[in-house]
Structure formats: structure tokens, C-alpha cells
Design brief:
Strand 3 (64-67) and strand 4 form a beta hairpin. The chain has a domain at 64-163. The chain has helices spanning 25-32, 94-97, 101-112, 126-145; strands at residues 2-3, 21-22, 64-67, 76-78, 151-155, 161-163. Helix 3 (101-112) packs antiparallel against helix 4. The chain is an alpha+beta fold.
Length: 168
């Protein structure tokens, strides 16, 4: 059983001073003699996913995606103008987007070489930046090949997020 370091707002006649506890369903059953009742979460697919066949997320399909390296495993970012900042996914999973496994692996490999430090040699590695642009362009071609209305941007060396479609 995990103890949470969270205090509860006291209600009238509430003498409980114990912190909140998080339990597994088995622990809950053992302590209270019944199974827990879970609230229903929103799991319905977004009603209009455009051409995204099989879109099953409860938020709209992205229309603007940025390819940007990060020192974590994130490299695809949802910058759609109609995105709900606290409701939609901000970091996008290549599997969710239906990106080909080969391209997803190349993006992961490219991102893994990013250090995120101003003294990192990658910051001065023109070939690494060019590879990122080429990967972003390949991603745009994949989306275009599926007739998806998605604008892919690349977060380049100067910190600008520029469209990659029709870029040399």
C-alpha cells in the first residue's frame, strides 16, 4: 500500500487526519470487504477524425505535428491550433499516428543522439540537423500518402518551427 503525501480538506465532523492512501483493487477488497467502483472515463473515439481511419482516441486527430528532438523519448509534438491544452495529448506516439515502423525507428535513433546541452556536439553537427529535416519530410510524405490533412513542422537549429512540405 502506498501512502500519499496529500492532505484532505476537512469537512464538518471529519476527524480523519490520515493521509490519502492508494491501493490496488485487491487491497481495497481486503480492507473494505467489497470491490472498488471505478468511475467511467471518456473512452469514446473522437466523432470526426477526418481521414484518420481507425482513430480511436478521445481527442481530435492532430493537424499540426512538430518533429523536435528532446532528451526524453519524445520527438513528435501536437501543435494543432484546436488542441485542448490540458485534455489532448501533447506528445504523440508514432504507433498512435500509424507511422511506419522503419521511420519510427529512425526518428527514435535520431532523437537518442540529442543531448539537450548547449555544449553538446550535436548542436554543432550540421549532418544531425539535416537528418532531422529529412526525417520530418519523410513523415510529411507518409501523411500525404495517406491523404491526411497534417502539416509537419521541423524544429530546426535556430529554434524555428517551419513547414517541411515542398522544402528542398
Amino acid at each position: 500500500m502506498l501512502d500519499a503525501h496529500v492532505t484532505r480538506k476537512r469537512r464538518r465532523n471529519d476527524s480523519a487526519a490520515a493521509p490519502l492512501r492508494f491501493m490496488s483493487p485487491e487491497q481495497y477488497h481486503k480492507e473494505f470487504g467489497r470491490d472498488p467502483v471505478f468511475s467511467e472515463s471518456k473512452t469514446e473515439p473522437w466523432p470526426d477524425a477526418g481521414n484518420w481511419l481507425g482513430w480511436t482516441k478521445p481527442w481530435p486527430a492532430p493537424t499540426v505535428i512538430v518533429v523536435m528532438a528532446e532528451w526524453t523519448d519524445a520527438f513528435l509534438w501536437n501543435r494543432s491550433p484546436d488542441r485542448e491544452p490540458f485534455a489532448d495529448d501533447y506528445v504523440l506516439d508514432p504507433v498512435t499516428l500509424g507511422i511506419s515502423p522503419g521511420l519510427a525507428q529512425r526518428l527514435r535513433s535520431w532523437n537518442a543522439r540529442f543531448g539537450g546541452d548547449a555544449n553538446d556536439p550535436v548542436d554543432n553537427d550540421e549532418a544531425w540537423w539535416d537528418e532531422g529535416l529529412a526525417l520530418a519530410q519523410e513523415l510529411q510524405r507518409e501523411f500525404d500518402g495517406r491523404d491526411l490533412v497534417v502539416e509537419v513542422l521541423y524544429h530546426g537549429r535556430q529554434g524555428q518551427e517551419l513547414p517541411v512540405r515542398d522544402r528542398p
